[in-house]
Amino acid sequence: MKVLSFSYCFPNQDNPTWGIFVYQRLAALAQQTELKVCSPVPWFPLVTGTASDANEQCWNAMSVFRPRFFYIPKFFKNSDGRLYASGLRRWLGSLQKSWQPDLLDAHFVWPDGVGVALLAQKLNIPYVITLRGKLYECLKDDSQTQQCRRALLGAQAVISVSSRMAEEAVRLGVDTQRLTVIPNGVDLKHFRIRDRQKCREKLHLPATGRLLVTVAHLGPRKGHHEVIEALAALPDDVRLIIVGGDAQGGSKEQLLEVAKKHGVEDRLILPGRQGYDLIPYFYSAADISVLASYREGCPNAVLESLACGTPVVATDVGAVADILPQPECGRMVPAQQVAPLKQALSQVLEKTWPPQQVRSASGVRSWDQVAEEVYKVFEKVLSPEC
Questions:
Q1: Which among 57, 195, 224, 232 counts the fewest CB atoms within 10 Å?
Q2: pTM of this prediction?
Q3: pLDDT digits (tens, 9 = 90+) for 69-102
Q4: CA proximity to 274, closest of 294, 244, 316, 251
Q5: pLDDT tens digits, 143-178
Q6: CB atoms within 10 A of CB 79
Q7: Mean pLDDT across the chain, nearest whole number?
Q8: What are phi and psi of 44, to 5 degrees?
């Protein structure tokens, strides 16, 4: 089986953690089948430069192409899927002369899924789309919704990282027989149980007191304002660490202002964006991991925390209900509500959570296990009688 996977979100030299969850699934899948990756680069004259390379590259032993496609920044965004397909058509035709894929694998419904659907239909190649959190943005726009619907209805299979998004796909008309829910996995060697005090020492965090940690960019939709407000109602020995960089209109300065407003500026720790190698230490250093997002697909932050043996308080969004066992591993609360968040944090702080029990009860799976399930979907597409 030859699989060509498409994802605009994939690690590169400038941002080696960009789309690392896509890379991890594909790296595991590449152990089972012949696979190449296309990570298209959006391009507009005089704005984005020419930083792309349609030639085959090697990224951590994976074969990757980065052809560019024309797009218009900020305007005509409903055309991105069509521009994606138009920009890649010639490149894909050239690739087929030396390497013919049996299956096209799109990792987001927009623009990857819509663009891949147009390419696949033109070239008569079967395709599969994976639904992630991007779907929710598309559902806010009628044109994008209809384009996504057509792409999903034409797919030979649809994979959803959450049961909630699978329900959205059914509402769009996708046959349940072609729909499979496969949540994300975890690098279980990287995210594992570590000694809490040693982790705090390594990260130069307070040795005493209780720590909450959120690993997420500082954009508003991650719910940091609500967590800071809830922090103000918790005992004075509780501090909050937010690991992430400025993004989507959110900044360190803004969060410091929110903390000052609620009188907890001395209990907020903002170390900024951290390397992937350090993220497990933050989870292990904390008493609780918090994710108060307004929207998610399958949040790796929840899975990674559980793999480290740290309980989680998270909002009921995306795949959280699928991946966070309650009450064994933490609590789930409504999004954008401070009172339930404060109550859940208080309850979890009052309890002792043996890390090994949290990890065992979580049921977190390796990427190899996830890849096996994905491979079975691909096999069924190419051999329907199986």
A1: 195
A2: 0.90
A3: 988 887 888 999 999 999 999 999 999 999 999 9
A4: 244
A5: 999 999 999 999 999 999 999 999 999 999 999 999
A6: 16
A7: 94
A8: -140, 135
User: Could you tell me whether strands 2-6 and 34-38 are parallel, antiparallel, or unpaired per DSSP bridges?
Assistant: parallel
Burial of 48 (0-12, 13-18, 19+ CB in 10 A): middle
CATH of domain 2-185+366-382: 3.40.50.2000
Asked if 2-185+366-382 and 196-362 have one fold, the answer is yes
Domain ranges (residues) in the chain = 2-185+366-382, 196-362
Amino acid at the residue 145: T
Does the pLDDT at position 14 exceed 70? yes
Exposure b/e, 180-203, CB count within 10 A at least 16 = b: bbbbbbbbbeebbbbebeebbeeb
Amino acid at 217: H
Residue 52 has pLDDT above 80, yes or no: no
Beta-bridge mates of residue 66: 53
Dihedral (C-alpha) 262, 268, 273, 276: value to the nearest 10 degrees? -130
CA–CA separation, 10 and 22 (whole Å): 7
Instruction: For domain 196-362, say whether CATH 3.40.640.10 is its number.
Output: no
Instruction: Say which residues have a Cβ less than 8 Å from residue 197's Cβ, sequence separation at least 6.
Output: 207
Phi-psi region of 114 (alpha: psi -120 to 50; beta: other; left: phi over 0): alpha
Question: Cβ(30)–Cβ(62) under 8 Å?
Answer: yes
**What tens digit of pLDDT does each residue of 244-282 get?**
999 888 999 999 999 999 999 999 999 999 999 999 999
Phi and psi angles of residue 14, each rounded to the nearest 5 degrees, phi first:
-75, -30
